[in-house]
Every structure is written in structure tokens, then in C-alpha cells.
């Protein structure tokens, strides 16, 4: 391998190690804030919101937690895989999937919080965009893993 190619490989490893670290941090942030928002909902909103609104709010918290944990796992997985040779396509695909999960979390959970806390009905109409982003992210993870298995 030429020196230039070796340097490119090393740069890719370092870049994906950083991306993995960032994704893990975002996942931990989403999970941690989901705990805080869940506690706020259970203790601070119980007397303020209707049971139906609380259910919608809890859905936002739950999906934020699920996807926060998924991002934490993806980030840690990307960090581990970044040191292995022959995984740049898998890393790229998993990173793209993670971006869709982040966007999905922000849109899906965020619009549910806006809808329940501020009563903005338009927010509820945007919520499905976040759901679609989740589905795309999960589909990309499945595709990445299947295609990586075939190329192994």
C-alpha cells in the first residue's frame, strides 16, 4: 500500500472514531434528557395535562429513549469498527442511518412535546415525518448489516 493510501485509511479511521464518539454522546444526551423529561411529565405535568395529552407526551419520551440508546450503541459500534480494515462502506452506511435516527428523534419527539406542552396542532401534523425518518434509519441499519455480511 502506498504512503498516500495508508494516510487516507488512517484519516478515515480517525474520522469514524470521532463520529462514533459524537454519535454515542448524542445518544447519551437523548437518553439522559428522556429521563429528565419523563420525570417532569410524571411529576410536573400530571395535574396540568389531560390523560390523553400525557399519553402523547410519554410516547415522545419513550421514542426519544429508544433512539437515544440506539444511537449510543451505533456510536460505540462505529468506534469499534473504525479500527478494523475493510469496513468503510459499513461505517458510512451506519453513520447515515444514525443521522436519520437523530433527525427522527428531533422531529418525532420534539413535535409531540410542542403539541402537548404548547397546544400547537400543526406540530402533530409534522410528527409522521419523524416517524418516516426513524423507519429510514432502521432500514439503513438492516441493509448495511446484510450487505456487510455478504461482503465478509
UniProtKB/TrEMBL annotation:
GO terms for cellular component: plasma membrane. It is a multi-pass membrane protein. Its main location: membrane. It is found in: Membrane. The chain crosses the membrane at residues 23-45, 65-82, 94-116, 122-146. Keywords: Membrane, Transmembrane, Transmembrane helix. The keyword Kinase does not apply. Pfam families: DUF423. The keyword Membrane applies. InterPro entries: DUF423 (IPR006696). Belongs to the UPF0382 family. This is DUF423 domain-containing protein.
